[in-house]
Amino acid sequence: MIAASLLLGGGTRAGFLSDSILQLASIPLLLLASTRILGLERTKETNAILAFCVAIVLVPLLQLVPLPPAIWSHLPERANVAAAFEVAGNKGQWAPITAYPTGTWLSLAALMPPLAVFLGTVSLSNIDRRQLSYLVLSIGLLSACLGLIQVAQGPNSPLRFFEYTNPSEAVGFFANRNHFAALLYCLTVLASALIIDAGFNSRKRLFEPAALLPLIAGFVVLVILIAAQLVARSRAGLGLTMAALLLAWPLASFDPHRGTGLRSGKVFAAAVVVSMIFALQFALLRILERFGSDTLDDARLPFARNTFEAARAFMPFGSGMGTFVDVYGMFERPADVFAAYANHAHNDILEAALEAGLPGLLMMLLFGAWIVWRCFELWRRPTAKAFATDVLWERAALFVVVLLSAHALVDYALRTTAIAVVFAFSCGLLVRPFAGVNASEQAPDVHGDPIDRARFERRYPEKGPSSAGEPWGADINWPDEWRSDPFQHKPGKK
């Protein structure tokens, strides 16, 4: 589902055939994930998260419930609608809260792929989640390479899959360069985590092939991602990519007790510097040209002002999910009419306030509080039983969520299925696995951190060291008294 969404979900508006295919394909995953979750033991935290998912679905569903005229005619901005019904001879007709039911149905269907991916992710073990992270990186790398080829072939490249697109920039599998750039800075965070994790696990083995290959792979991926970001020429994407690289520094020193933060920081710094040197050689001029005039720059402020007025007029219930285009024109001033088509507010918070009303604002506030709480937990008190690698990927996922949320203030990348699925997957990584799903995990590989191995053996003593093959340090002639518990510190001994 993740791979299909990244390949087909790059459209910028509802109604694409590819989006319909993804929505239909998400139904089996949605059913399987829901069935699996119902059979697992849940905590108060996980029950609250599942209740939040139900609330997300209930918002558009309740907006579609038909209401008697005595109720809906007294809703905000419904007087003209009631007068039109009376002129048409339909006085007394029942109507829902939403001003455009078809748009609300489409919005409800658009929730299915990200919701299915989120529920599927939270029902998996940590090892399975890491494998999905590698899958996201792989498909994203393919999209980045496609973007580089598109620029090399020019505006008439046959590899541009959307009729209305940015013909001179890299777009990958997307229609809009800004949304392609959103995927790239998300992948930059994941690639940074890959490099840092490889740096952690390479101590005392830096020049062995098993240690060098992940570092080289992460470096190559980072070079390609930064190069594709530069030729996409999205200013928001460039700014958030720099933020992504800055946020990667806390990842490089995320577990000081391992004593390898310095090495990982050096490895990551070298990868970033060399990547920028390679990428800037052929994209610097295009970047400077991009910071010229842009019609949409002047349009964003009027979009935000008019959307705010519309949201205030439709409070507290909102105009209905998917009704922005139909409602925005009622509040657009003649002086604010631009050549750019206002298909979205370019500010997801304002657009959600208009369409979902007070419930939407409340849910965004709860989500923000949860993100702050998870940030505190991941940095101040990470789960004691969690492997260091898992904590690293959780923190990387937190950065992805923060960056996409910041981008939502100036664009609508989250309105595409592909980015919505990446956002949902990252949120799923932030949820602790349900009780029992990690029981099938195996110990870290033979090159893993011994601290991680010790944690695994203490957590799953029934598996024993033999479950991961040859134990770490089995080739060393340890004293017999150490073999009983090599991780137990005894007084007077180092």
From TrEMBL:
Pfam families to which the protein is assigned, alphabetical: Wzy_C
Signal sequence annotation: none
Gene Ontology annotations for the cellular component aspect, listed alphabetically: membrane
Region (Disordered): 460-494
Record has Acetylation as a keyword: no
Domain O-antigen ligase-related: 221-364
Main location: membrane
Entry membrane topology: Multi-pass membrane protein
Transmembrane segments annotated in the record for this chain: 20-39, 46-65, 105-125, 132-152, 180-200, 212-232, 238-255, 267-288, 356-375, 387-406, 412-431
GO molecular function, one term: ligase activity
Keyword Lipid metabolism listed: no
Domain of life: Bacteria
Record protein name field: O-antigen ligase like membrane protein
InterPro entries: O-antigen_ligase-rel_domated, WaaL-like
Subcellular location: Membrane
Annotated keywords: Ligase, Membrane, Transmembrane, Transmembrane helix
